[in-house]
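wait is this the right file?? whatever heres the structure
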């Protein structure tokens, strides 16, 4: 697997920074930053951020944690949060094949 590119690193770091700020301020029951907030914090064009966030979602690095009603918009905006790697295998028994394979793949990728 090749290393993450500059845009992906910036997007993930922005998501981590913003999730901490939002949870500390706990404004309006928000659960995470929106795509526009992540793009603005990362200093990336919105179009590039949209593609990168979509790829991060597909790869399992980001997940949708809620929806936020944006003024002057009919559709709610998705709120994103980074996936905690420990959460992936907490729901499976420790000796299940998927958990063992997942732990092996995590250690092999390092």
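ok assuming it is, sequence goes like this
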């Amino acid at each position: 697997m090749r290393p993450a590119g500059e845009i992906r690193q910036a997007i993930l770091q922005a998501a981590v920074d913003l999730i901490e700020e939002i949870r500390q301020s706990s404004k309006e029951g928000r659960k995470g930053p929106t795509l526009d907030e992540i793009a603005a914090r990362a200093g990336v064009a919105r179009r590039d951020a949209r593609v990168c966030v979509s790829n991060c979602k597909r790869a399992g690095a980001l997940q949708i944690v809620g929806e936020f009603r944006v003024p002057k918009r009919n559709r709610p905006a998705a709120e994103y949060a980074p996936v905690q790697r420990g959460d992936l295998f907490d729901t499976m028994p420790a000796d299940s094949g998927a958990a063992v394979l997942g732990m092996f793949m995590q250690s092999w990728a390092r």
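The chain has a mean pLDDT of 83. so i think its the right one actually
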